[in-house]
Amino acid sequence: MTIIAPSILSMDFSDTRSQIADLERSAAKWMHFDVMDGHFVPNLTFGPDILKAMRRSCSLLMDVHVMIEDPLRYADVFLNAGADIYTFHYEAISLQMAIELAQKIRAAGKKAGISIKPKTSPDVLFSILKEFDLVLVMSVEPGFGGQQFDPGALEKIERLKEERQKQGLEFLIEVDGGINQKTGHQCVKAGADVLVAGSYIFKQDLIEGVASLL
Ligand code: DX5
Ligand code: ZN
Q: What is the pTM of this model?
């Protein structure tokens, strides 16, 4: 069963309570929480205090995607603030640091995720896949919601699925950016386990929007 992770980047922040209630009633199992630092990407979003508040007011699993230059430095604060999954970018750190960070996340009893931008090949992750519970394929340049899906993500999902089987691993394949009913279906067909969707879901009735992706 596909996991739907609504991205709160597209939430109407003048009324979070009713949207969280709708998401909890919907078929969504995760909440996708985008952290941006204005350096790794040209935009700023939320920090650990907002995550803590979301954690308190929402029963969904907190899928934290950090688009930040120094994911190692902030891992503890986000894990302590309630991240269930901490996904950082391959492009932000060295391979050795990525392994160390994944081990630290897992040692804290949380799930470790690694993400690649549209121009990064999934092959660069093959030697470290066993350290991760999730691989996040970006299907837009990270930084903003509401962009158009890059179909190049489909081949990456297929390659990761193939490699997962080859190595006998169990990480989840997640895709993020430009997901709607059509592109979501294409991603699931290619092998995605988790669909992140922001503007598509929050532009309509949330419960119906989530259901339409299944
Ligand atoms: C983009 C973020 C996404 C974003 C997706 O950098 O990582 O999670 O919210 O938004 P949509 O679904 O609108 O493309
Ligand atoms: Zn994201």
A: 0.98
Rg (CA), the chain: 16
DSSP code of residue 99: H
Among residues 37, 30, 178, 43, the alpha carbon closest in space to that of 118 is found at 178
Write out the H or E segment, with its range, that includes residue 85. strand 85-89
Q: Is 150 noted as a catalytic residue in this protein?
A: no
Neighbours of 61 (CB within 10 A): 16
The answer, yes or no, to whether any atom of ligand 1 lies below 6 A from the CB of 43, is no
84 is catalytic: no
> pLDDT averaged over consecutive 10-residue blocks of the chain (214 residues)?
97 95 97 98 97 96 98 98 98 98 98 98 98 98 97 98 98 98 98 98 97 98
